[in-house]
Write a structure and sequence with these properties.
single chain, four-stranded mixed sheet, two-stranded antiparallel sheet, 19% helix, elongated
């Protein structure tokens, strides 16, 4: 007669679910060093005054890597968003909409004095593109920003 052996499947469960390999919190997945910082993204106004803060970006201080996170857009499809977020006096949190970025109202007004929200969204899209292409810079010129505007920018989602 064979001896009955109790097996609760603990061994099998442990083999099936191995822990995923993850970068520890605070370490850059690009260079492997520790050191993320929240840096301002600023724009110099057309009149040449003091630059104003549009948003903040999370960035590795060693290699300039801007992390991304996965989220869902308004249609439910998965998208990857760069980690830009708002100052605490406006709308705190990670920005997934271009309309959340701060620009002074006089920069995107029409002749009637109304807000041109589509222009504001295109300005924010151009700024995100510039900040991702040149991660070491934090202050951008107004003319450079206007030169990067395109009509194909989506105005609701990054």
């Amino acid at each position: 007669m064979t001896a009955y052996k109790r097996d609760f499947g603990v061994k099998n469960r442990a083999e099936e679910k191995s822990a995923p390999t993850v970068t520890p919190a605070g370490f850059c997945p690009s260079c492997g060093k520790m050191g993320f910082a929240a840096l301002r993204v600023m724009v110099t106004p057309p009149d040449g005054g003091a630059p104003f803060t549009v948003c903040f970006k999370k960035q590795c201080v060693h290699c300039g890597f801007i992390p991304e996170f996965k989220g869902k857009d308004k249609n439910g499809a998965e998208r990857v968003y760069p980690l830009f977020f708002m100052p605490f006096n406006t709308r705190p949190g990670i920005s997934v909409k271009y309309r959340d970025f701060y620009f002074p109202p006089e920069l995107y007004q029409t002749e009637d004095g109304k807000a041109d929200v589509a222009l504001k969204a295109r300005l924010a899209a151009a700024l995100v593109r510039l900040a991702q292409n040149e991660p070491r810079r934090s202050c951008f010129d107004w003319e450079e920003l206007k030169g990067n505007l395109t009509r194909t920018d989506k105005n609701s989602i990054i």
